[in-house]
Structure formats: structure tokens, C-alpha cells
Amino acid sequence: MKPIHPLKRWFKHAWSHPRQVKALFSAQALANIENAISQNEHHHAGEIRVVIESGLPAYAILRGLTPRQRAIHLFGQLNIWDTEHNNGVLIYLCLADQDVEIVADRGIHRQVGQAGWQQICQQMEGMFRSGQFEAGVVYGIQAIGQHLAAHFPPEAVPRNELSNRVLIL
């Protein structure tokens, strides 16, 4: 994220609203993303969760919270860290900051590393810049799924430990 004046950033977030998410992600697009998560999780034993936030809460802006810090907070709050094989992955979009963050539990992070996640984020951000919001998220799900499939093959009895529903904040 490039530096931005704190007051300008505060206004961007203060004027953001979940309606902006719906302007970029139709109900059908959200259903397609949820379906992509569900279908992808058939190919591995990992868990993927998507959170889209129009802007950070006022307290977060006042404390200077970065999108990365917010993603880590949500990773814990949503219990993504609590999967049986430590292989939960959060895709977090902060629209006001135009930022994508991927936070992965230690089981899969150990295999992929921050550089691997950053590469996926950069590709997604490029797709978003060209207006391909749904396709960008689906790309992220597929790219993460490839890593999960390589290190966490599907289980004989599949389970769904985390909701596949896109969370809009």
C-alpha cells in the first residue's frame, strides 16, 4: 500500500459503505465466488475464506491500522487459524485502500511463504485495476487451491470447517 495522508485516508474510509461492495460484486458474482470456493475445496483438505470490506472502521483508522493488520485480526476473529491441519487461508479485500491481503495458517504458509502469497495478491490487484473483480477473486481462490492441493490432498471424508460464504463488512 502506498503512503497516503492520514486525513485523506480517514475520509476515504469514512465515506465507504458496504453498498460499494455490491456495486462491484453482484449477487450472482458473490454466488459464483462461493461456488468457486466450494468446488475448489473438493481438490484439497484446506479451507479458504473470503472477506470483502468497503472500508475500515473508524477506530482502526484512528489507530493507523493497515489492511494487513486488519486481515490478521479477522483471521483470528473468524477462527480461520483453527482448522484441524492448520491450513486455513483468508483472502481479504479492503476496497477503500485498494488492497488485497492473504493470511495463511502456519501449515500452508510454511510451504508457500510470503513471496508466494504476495505474487497471488499482485495478480489479483492487477485484475481489479482492469475491472475484473469477480475474476480476480476466483483467480485467487484457484491459485491458493493449487498450493493447498499440492500439500494437503483431499481427505477420504471431506469436511467443510469454514463457511464458503463471502463475508461483506
From TrEMBL:
A family per Pfam: TPM_phosphatase
Domain TPM: 23-146
InterPro entries (alphabetical): TPM_dom
UniProt-recorded name of the protein: TPM domain-containing protein
Superkingdom of the source species: Bacteria
